[in-house]
From TrEMBL:
Lineage: Bacteria, Bacillati, Actinomycetota, Actinomycetes, Micrococcales
Alphabetical list of InterPro entries matching this protein: 6-phosphogluconolactonase_DevB (IPR005900), 6PGL (IPR039104), Glc/Gal-6P_isomerase (IPR006148), NagB/RpiA_transferase-like (IPR037171)
GO biological process entries: carbohydrate metabolic process; pentose-phosphate shunt
Reaction equation(s) it catalyzes: 6-phospho-D-glucono-1,5-lactone + H2O = 6-phospho-D-gluconate + H(+)
Record domain Glucosamine/galactosamine-6-phosphate isomerase: where: 11-237
Record-linked Pfam families: Glucosamine_iso (PF01182)
Keywords tagged on the record: Hydrolase
Pathway(s): Carbohydrate degradation; pentose phosphate pathway; D-ribulose 5-phosphate from D-glucose 6-phosphate (oxidative stage): step 2/3
Protein name per Swiss-Prot or TrEMBL: 6-phosphogluconolactonase
Family according to the record: Belongs to the glucosamine/galactosamine-6-phosphate isomerase family. 6-phosphogluconolactonase subfamily.
Enzymatic class: hydrolase
EC number per UniProt: 3.1.1.31
């Protein structure tokens, strides 16, 4: 099931990040007015991390009950713990280290490379962590909001054009080898897991993303433009700056 699709264009990357942050905080507050917990998936990437920094700088963050928010990741670069290129490290620096009242147990980073285990192990570990928070009979929680950056090649999470990881079904996570974007080893949610989410927000800025945005919105084949297959059951939201929306 695919929900409504909205495309919202902002003047530049700064405004885009501020607006996405405001939306995210409002969505969490709306959900918290009726239930708890809320499950949010974080992204890496330039504008993704800018958005997390904007959340950290918003006073509205104090209105959120962070004890009722669980934070997950859509993908991770399989690097040692604390590596500056890990999406987790960047998210902690931009946001998580600044949030009062967020219990450590509500933060669910993908495993870090430990020199012993491979990416398949890491993907299985993350699947097991998802299962711990799944409603009975499900393999994973339903994500309320999935934030996704997008590369100029239209990749989302670590699902790259033409890469076999994009075809994996029957499980929530996949180990990725030979990623065309460094580092080569990654862990990602699968399309199935993303598509089971309530809301999927694709956040993209810059003229170098314009062709990918155009292909994604045109509904190109997922093997060509993975972003086209990043949809939510309630809402698919494309949050763009004017340069990314210029095609
Ligand atoms: O490597 C990644 O790249 C994408 C997009 O990054 P950007 O810098 O072009 O915005 C990101 O969405 C993904 O999480 C990350 O692992």
């Amino acid at each position: 099931m695919t929900g409504q699709r909205l495309v919202v264009v902002h003047p530049d990357a700064e405004v885009l990040a501020e607006a996405a942050a405001a939306r995210l905080l409002t969505r969490i507050l709306d959900l918290q007015s009726v239930r708890s917990p809320v499950h949010v998936v974080l992204t890496g990437g330039t504008v993704g991390i800018k958005t997390l920094a904007a959340v950290a700088n918003s006073t509205v963050r104090h209105a959120v009950d962070w004890t009722g928010v669980h934070l997950w990741w859509g993908d991770e670069r399989y690097l040692p713990d604390g590596d500056a290129d890990r999406n987790e490290t960047q998210a902690r620096g931009a946001l998580l280290d600044h949030l009062d009242g967020l219990p450590a147990g509500n933060v669910h980073p993908m495993p870090a490379a430990d020199g012993e285990h491979d990416v398949d192990w890491a993907a299985e570990q993350y699947a097991a962590e998802l299962a711990r928070f799944a409603p009975e009979g499900s393999a994973a929680p339903v994500f309320d909001v999935v934030l996704l950056g997008m590369g100029p090649d239209a990749h989302v999470a670590s699902l790259f054009p033409g890469h076999p990881a994009g075809t994996v079904t029957g499980r929530p996570t996949v180990g990725v080898r030979s990623s065309p974007k460094p580092p080569p080893e990654r862990v990602s949610l699968t399309f199935e897991m993303i598509q089971a989410s309530s809301e999927v927000w694709i956040i993209a800025a810059g003229a170098e993303k314009a062709d990918a945005v155009s292909a994604g919105l045109a509904g190109a084949d997922r093997a060509t433009a993975p972003a086209a297959a990043a949809t939510g059951t309630r809402l698919t939201l494309w949050l763009l700056d004017s340069a990314a929306a210029s095609r």
